[in-house]
Every structure is written in structure tokens, then in C-alpha cells.
Design brief:
The protein is of the alpha+beta class. The protein is built from 3 helices and 4 strands. The longest helix has 15 residues.
Amino acid sequence: MSWPEDADGDVLRRLDEQGFDFSSRLDIDFMIDFKGWPPSSKAIDLLVDKFGSVEIYDPDDEGQGYILVKVNDRLTYELVVHYQSEISLIMGAYDGWCESWGVLSNA
């Protein structure tokens, strides 16, 4: 497989090297950061409407807070870029953005 030379492509290449099964559906986690904490309840409500549920991780000694949403699908570069862009667009009005994602390896 071939992916663009960027951070998302690098992650996909590492997963491929580890024997990741790209043909299976799985939960893909998207982490949403916010300029200020806590995020507005309207932002959370929009995410719940779009994704069904959210997980809220408050700031702690190890880092800033974030919200996590899950998408169950086959992992592709296009899917990752699409959701990061869409989430950032939706959350932009609330000083939020998405540039992080992850999966539990199924290799």
C-alpha cells in the first residue's frame, strides 16, 4: 500500500509493517483538542449528535484535556483525513480541532 508522506501516512505505514489488517472494521479513535477547557456544552452536544457518544478526558498531570469520539469502519487514509477535517470544521466555532487519531492494533 502507498500513503502520502505526512504524519497520517507515517502511522499507516507503521501499522502495515506490524501486519495490521486493513480489511476489517474496527473502532478508530479521534481526539479533539480545545483551546480552553472545559469545552462548551454546545460543542459536546454537537459531537453526541454526530457520533452517538463521546468520552471526555479532563486535564491531568500528564496533559491537556480532550474529547474522544469513535468511528467504526475500515481504516483508510481518506477516512482519517475526512474525519479530522470534518471534526475540525464543526469544532472550529468552539476553538476545537482534531489532528490526532488511533486504533488498537489488530495485528
